[in-house]
Amino acid sequence: MPDLKRILHVEDDPSIQAVAKVALEAVGGFTVLSCSCGQDALDQVQGFAPDFILLDVMMPGMDGPQTLQELGRMVDITQIPVAFMTAKVQPNEIEHYRSLGARDVIIKPFDPMQLATQVRAIWSRSRG
Amino acid sequence: MSDHSSRRLIMGMLSSLAMLLILGLGVELLLRQYSLRQHELEQQRLLAHAYEVRAVLLAELNATLHLATGLASYIPAKQGRIDEAELQPWLRGLFEQGRHIRNIGLAPGNRIDFLYPLAGNESALGLYYPDIDAQWPAIQRVIASRKPHLVGPLSLLQGGQGLIYRVPVYLNDQSYWGLISTVIDFDQLAAEVESIARKRGIAVTITPAGQTTIPAKQDALDLSVSLAGAQWQLQATPLNPAKKTFTGLRMLGWGLAFTVAGLIGFALHTQQRRANLLLALNQSQRDFLQAFELAPQGMVLMTAEGGLLVVNQAFCRLLQLPPEQLLHRPLHSFCPPAEHEALSAHVSAIRPGHNNSWFLTLVDAQHLQIPVECSAAILGSLGGADEVRILHVQDMRERLRLQRLQSEFTASVSHELRTPLTAIAGALGLINGGVLGEVPHAMQQLLQIAHANSLRLQALIDDLLDMEKLMAGKIRVELRDQWLWPLLEEAVAHNQPYADQYQVLLHLVGPPCSVRVAVDEQRLAQVLANLLSNAAKFSPPGARVSLLVEEHADQVRVSVQDQGAGIDDDFKARIFSKFSQADASDSRQKGGTGLGLAISKELLERMHGRIGFDSVKGQGSTFWFELPLHATSTQRANL
């Protein structure tokens, strides 16, 4: 089973982006590429070749679900697990995210010390 | 009482008084008429009796005088020669027939030579008239007139009162013979006449005409009596004159007048009151209809089946239709078909004293759907229709727009706050977690304070957002049948780190129960976190907070027991209200928004449960919630 090393993080808020990057890199030891919008992620996903993609839901322009749909056309998201990071976690919303192909949802506000653990758990579950 | 009412009352009283005076005057007039009629009848009766008495008097006298006149015919027949032996029995018969004759004297040549009866009249025998100065002139006039003459009553020498009937006797040769003088016992005659009069209820007095010795009496009747040249006056008076005061009749009449005036006054007063009530009712109806017509919200009067009877201007404006296109049509014809059934159910369920409110969609003339809130009540009968309903129709568009704006505002502000807070809390968490290396001790303390307060602010915003979503119905609670015990274990484990800050131990009291409940796992965890964190916050250091489970027939009770100070009585009533804190300073001392219990209550109600508490000041508190048991709870849990 390949190891989880490279994470593509798409988040429009630079502060959250920075905190998540530190949390994943310093706590989890991952390599993180931060993108500030969906289009940026689409542009860089193939060059970066992530093992895991973390997507914010509410973003200007292309939102998280739209970005996921576009990503699905470019990479095999059955092999690269995708999780949303959002505060919008009504059961029906979670169902919606799952139906789009997301493996799970990390609830905002997140605990930066636990973020790496949460990501790793989702990644493990997706690998069976 | 208003001036208007006072004036009406005074007018009513004056009317009654006037009525009383008119009736009283009528009574007095009737009494006067009655009195006059009675007087007239009495006079007629008195007159009849007086005539009768006079007739008796005349009859008595005439009978006597005829006897004397007959004697006067005897003397000429004897050529003036009187044979005493022959005369004696004849006089005796005469005396016996004439009941009132006291004596009969024959005075040839004006000297009384013969007297019958002699006994008791001896003093008059031999009396020569010319010697009686008092009588002689009158006697001379009798002789000259050649006609019998009656005089008296006179005082008799023998005593008593008498009438004297003097008959001058002329012989056939026209020479004067003398006088026959018959003395009639007036006292006896008068007594007899008076006796007869008394039997007829009257009193009579007989006096010579021209004398005024009898004082004029009220109700007295005077009759003249003429006989043989004598003129008398017979005065008759009723023995028992009718009382003319008519006190009884007057009292009865006035009593009737009072009664009738009172009844008329009462009837007028009642009529007036009724008129006033009708006036007030009319005014009230006018006011009601005016208020109804001008009400800023839609108002409708409708039948029990929902047929529109009356609509106001606001309702017409709401649907942009004139009244004639609304009246007599069913309300549901202005609703989308999907709501017809629900509307019929609401209309038929309107009951007096119930909260008859529901939401509805109306469709206006432009086919625009308008959300409204209807409130209905039963008004009663109106214009022939029974059980009329009054419907208040509130246009909800503006309210919903404001609610949406408020909701969007809250969500937007909260989201905008939460995003930077997530970054702040995250960054502080990483620094405090030592991810970026060792931090100087003095700086670390301040960073921990900053981290703790950013977490506290996050919790506050979470609560605000939750409450807003609950109120807006945006939180979906998805019930799932599951074992309760593992949820409690998880809650204790999850909240113990928080309780550690207060040096409080959370303890789930065993043994494990085999209970299944239908809950939203995430929301139940939120409720438990709220109750457990509250208990920890309000317990003294070293205390234990117990989590207990009690299984009942159809429900399970979960209790969180703390060893805090208990809850003040005046706070108990509002403990589940939004933003409630026992003391305003609590929110600063203990943290929290005062929304936790309100959110827990809402969430539990969505899960068909209920929340409550028992607390005695100084003896801690127990917050509990109850959830209905799931049908499969009897199965043993694989714990």
UniProtKB/TrEMBL annotation, chain A:
Check the record and name the Pfam families matching this protein: Response_reg
List GO BP terms, alphabetically. phosphorelay signal transduction system
Superkingdom of the organism of origin: Bacteria
- The Response regulatory domain is annotated at 6-123
Q: Which SUPFAM superfamilies match?
A: CheY-like
Tell me which UniProt keywords the record has, alphabetically. Answer: Phosphoprotein
The stretch of residues making up the signal peptide is none
**Which InterPro entries did the record assign?**
Bact_response_regulator (IPR050595), CheY-like_superfamily (IPR011006), Sig_transdc_resp-reg_receiver (IPR001789)
PTM-bearing positions, type 4-aspartylphosphate: D56
* Protein name as catalogued: Response regulator
Native source species: Pseudomonas turukhanskensis
Automatic annotation (TrEMBL), chain B:
Give every CHASE domain span: 112-197
- Carries keyword Transcription regulation? no
> What is catalysed by this protein?
ATP + protein L-histidine = ADP + protein N-phospho-L-histidine
Alphabetized, the UniProt keywords read: ATP-binding, Cell membrane, Kinase, Membrane, Nucleotide-binding, Phosphoprotein, Transferase, Transmembrane, Transmembrane helix, Two-component regulatory system
Localization, per the record, is: Cell membrane; Membrane raft
GO terms for cellular component: membrane raft; plasma membrane
Q: Which InterPro entries match?
A: CHASE_dom, CHASE_sf, HATPase_C_sf, HATPase_dom, His_kinase_dom, HisK_dim/P_dom, HisK_dim/P_sf, PAS
Q: Which PROSITE patterns match?
A: CHASE, HIS_KIN, PAS
What's its EC? 2.7.13.3
Start and end residues of each PAS domain: 284-354
- GO molecular function annotation: ATP binding; phosphorelay sensor kinase activity
Topology in membrane: Multi-pass membrane protein
Concerning NCBIfam families, the annotation shows: sensory_box (TIGR00229)
Protein known as:
histidine kinase
Q: What is the lineage of its organism?
A: Bacteria, Pseudomonadati, Pseudomonadota, Gammaproteobacteria, Pseudomonadales
